[in-house]
Amino acid sequence: MNAVATLPGLAPVYEATTAAELEQLWRFRHRVYVEELGRKLGRNDGDGSGVHDTEDDQAYTLHLFTRDEDCVTGVLRIRHWQPGEVPARDFDVSTMERFPDVELLTTAELGRLMVRRSERGRLLLASLLSAAYELGCGRLGVDLAFLNCATGLVRHYRRLGARPTTDAWSRRRTGSRSRW
Fold first, then answer.
1. pLDDT for 127 beyond 60
2. What is the CA radius of gyration of the chain?
3. What is the pLDDT of residues 79-100, one digit of tens each?
């Protein structure tokens, strides 16, 4: 396990680098998305083996996680692109054209952020976001980051200081996912 720097006093955050670690993340997602929330996202074989999609396997995707002695307690996916390399679909969905010279910026999207139910409302979320910030500003050199969340989580992201783009905020009102 490779630890990622966080603010002092926060839980350790690790970057998943092995197949075994990634499988643990997929299973954690299954527990939260499918078993707890009743959602269907990405590949879900219906056998509890996990939830993941093709974006999880891309070279531009990193996976962060926290754990206790028994299992994964939180996850966060970072997709990052060098200047001019954002896939067209992501560029359009996130309305990146609103940002001047965005094609000259290293860009990232944070998503699939979740923590174990018993850890919600504690500092685990701060640990994951702190690690993403340190990694994004450091090794990845991210200039601009977008967040992706379910519409029910918008108020939480706003409390963290995220601001929706106008088009994304309009889509939120129609029931689709929100981009920040």
1. yes
2. 16
3. 999 999 999 999 998 889 889 9
H helices present in the chain, as ranges: 19-29, 88-93, 124-137, 154-159, 166-173
Structure tokens belonging to residue 159 = 């409390």
Tell me the whole-structure pTM to 2 decimals: 0.85
The span from the CA of 177 to the CA of 90, in Å, is 13
CATH topology assigned to domain 2-179: Aminopeptidase (3.40.630)
Spatial distance between the Cα atoms of 1 and 98, rounded to a whole number of angstroms: 38
Is the CB of residue 111 less than 8 Å from the CB of residue 79?
yes
Asked if residues 105 and 99 have their Cβ atoms less than 8 Å apart, the reply is: yes
List, for residues 132-170, the tens digit of each pLDDT value: 999 999 999 999 999 888 777 788 778 878 877 655 444
52-61 burial, b at 16+ Cβ within 10 Å, e below that, comes to bbebbeeebb
Q: Tokens 């290293």 — which residue?
A: 106
Q: 71, 75, 59, 73: which is closest to 16 by C-alpha? A: 75
Contact 50, 19 (CB under 8 A): no
